[in-house]
Amino acid sequence: PHAHLFGSTTYGLTFQKYEIMTEEKNIKDIIEGKSADEALAAVERALTDNPHNAMMLVEKGKLLWRLNRRGEAMSAYEAAALIAPAGPAKLLIEHSNSIMDFFNPDLLNP
User: Fold this and answer.
1) What string of pLDDT tens digits covers the 110 residues of the chain?
2) pTM of the prediction?
């Protein structure tokens, strides 16, 4: 009877949510109380141990974006999207592209 419970989709999704929550806590612990530059250095150190950590790559992208290093941020998001296509990186890429594509002639001084 227990085999069905552990083989169920619900259990898999619950475990996946637990893994995500644990990873988010790990990221928070790494960057909390640091400047964007310090946090980026900490995230990059963590990525040397696990370069295929999609959530850490997303965090790297967010920090790079905050530091106005948009091209590098997009590269980090792209790398994360390749590793975890269903993760948040795809949405971040779309939003980032929208921001960069925004054009308002009233805000420009030719």
Assistant:
1) 444 444 444 445 454 555 555 667 778 878 888 899 999 999 999 999 889 999 999 999 999 999 999 999 999 999 999 999 999 999 999 988 888 777 666 665 55
2) 0.71
